[in-house]
Fold this sequence. Notes:
Blueprint: E1 4-5, H1 6-11, E2 20-26, E3 28-29, E4 36-37, E5 40-41, E6 43-44, E7 49-63, E8 70-73, E9 80-83, E10 85-92, H2 93-102, E11 109-113, E12 117-118, E13 123-124, E14 130-138, E15 141-149, E16 154-160, E17 164-170, E18 176-177, H3 178-183, E19 191-193, E20 202-213, E21 221-224, E22 230-233, E23 247-248, H4 249-255, E24 261-267, E25 275-276, E26 288-294, E27 299-306, E28 313-317, E29 323-326, E30 330-333, H5 334-340, E31 347-351, E32 373-383, E33 389-398, E34 418-422, E35 426-431, H6 441-447, E36 452-458, E37 473-481, E38 485-489, E39 496-499, E40 507-510, E41 527-530, H7 532-539, H8 542-545, H9 557-582, H10 590-612, H11 633-643
Antiparallel strand pairs: 1-22, 2-7, 2-22, 3-6, 4-5, 7-8, 7-20, 9-18, 9-19, 10-17, 11-14, 11-17, 12-13, 14-15, 15-16, 19-20, 20-21, 23-40, 24-26, 24-40, 25-41, 26-38, 27-28, 27-37, 28-41, 29-36, 30-35, 31-32, 31-35, 32-33, 33-34, 36-37, 38-39
Amino acid sequence: MEPVSLQDFVCALDLASLPRVLRVCSGVYFQGSIYEICGNECCLSTGDLIKVTQVCLQKVVCKNPGTGQTMEIAPNFSGHFSPLTGPQSYTTLEELLSAATQRSRKLPIGFISTHRITTESRVVPRDQPLLLEDVEAYHGTYRARCVLDTKTQQFILHLPLSQKGPFWEWQPGAPQPLLQALQDPALSNRLFTCPTLPWQSLILRPQYELQAIMHMRRTIVKIPSTLEVDVEDVTASSQHIHFIQPLLLSEILARGGPFPLPTEILETPGGPPIFVGPWVGSLQKGQRLCIHGLASPPWRILVSTKGRKVPRHFMVSGAYQGKLRRRPREFLTACDLLGALQPGQPLRVVATKDCEGEGVESPGFTSLAVGDRLEVLRSGQAHGAEGQDIDVLVCQRLSDQAEEEAEEEYEEVEDEDQILLPLYFSSSFVEEMSDNRRYSLEDLMAQFSLPCEVKVVAKESSHPADPLPSFPGLRLEEKIMEPFLVVSLDSNPKMCFEIPPRWLDLTVVETKGQPGQPAGRPPVATVEEVTDAFYYTLRRLPAFEKQPPPPRPPKSRGLRGQKKQSGMDKSAQYSRVSELQQAPLLPKPKMKTLPQSAKDSSNTYSKISAHMKGLRYTTKSITEDPDNDEHDYEEILEKFRNTL
């Protein structure tokens, strides 16, 4: 096949013959573009192979051949088009007559001109049908005798054979829908007429979009048929060519098979690793993998270790078969206690930190001491010190004889036995529990809410290197619902692990499976350690964002008043000191100052005593105001003069 333009190839293409393989004979490049503009391919190199799989009509451009004006119509245009002319135009009447003679056409011959024809007697509008009846000799030249029929009158016109056109042979046909007129090869490049359009004749120029596959292109390539490129059909000689199409793991997951699927890594996502394991370093370009399918069950538990200075983080599969035992939970605020309270499940805690009632704006709270036992009852509201209701946690103080009453029916407690803890109250509590049962991970998730603290007492038998039993405690933080793919290395089929395409979306390509691969799915590691960076990425998931932050403690009105009063006292003291510095200093008799000194000392003692009793007081300056001094300086001076 000779190279043709892409537009001509698509217009003459039989859609039933798809797919077709094309070779680009002359490439094209749009400066400033990358690979796609508006989703369409705009860069093709000479020699590229394109496997066309589908052709879609985008729009049809109608062109007026006389004026050059254009208009666009949609593929679902409802008008009908009637062919007016033959498939070819002619520049002169002599060419038209010669072509008709070669086809053994006899006169008369109908034709039209897409331009206006001016004669000595009349002007013929464009697209006006004329009938060539005969050729006559006139003064040594040949002229065509033509008939112009205006439906009301006929006119005879003599046109020279050298009359310039273009001219089209007039062959009116039956009206056809738009798609049928475009798909008929016999109607290609003909003039049409449509009653619903303003022009008497027009040329249809369809524009298509080709969907094709190219080497190393992950997605379907979309190529406009108007791209100025020449192509050659090489389908017959390209049957052995396999187009390599990269895939993402997320696309394989969405496709749902077939599994097992042998693949080869083409590209790994950038960024730091998210897992810590022996298989992480093997995920490099060129590594062959076998994708066995979707991991089951689809949920994972995010786990953090306890009891060490630097915690480690793990993602544990729901298929984990180790045995776990519950550990007492630790709570730092009353809000944490409220979050752990579940309907129908009693929650008893022991205080591990002394806390006085000073600064707590709750009338039902006095103090807590280490060892105090509380039972969390419910949430409520209390009347705060500032006249506003505050959210509190209603707890019952337990006695030492209540240790065996965990399963007894709850009885109403008197108000004096209850403690109201504001939700912002910060202290330290540890859960009081006596549960020695051994749970599986699935049973634990079904019976208790997260977060939950456990200890692994029996490791998983199918995972000899299970690291979880070596830690004194684990905190089960969140349940993650995310699909994983089970993958094994082709070089080590026994190393089987799970990959989340959402966070580790490898680019792979399908390959042929190698013989000797083990049948079935090998055992999968159910515990994977995650990096700190990935752990905090998981903590930003919407499931974690739903957890409300603990309430902030309200600003204390008493503290604000104390600070304000202290500031006022300091300013008053400063003004008194300034007045003393400006007054003249005169000698004072010793006997008169001793009682005042003793008085000041007694005042100071009374102030300190009041402070020791927990009363709020305002510090006063020991120096008295000179205006209120009991000494009479005039009397002293008079006695001094009499002595002299």
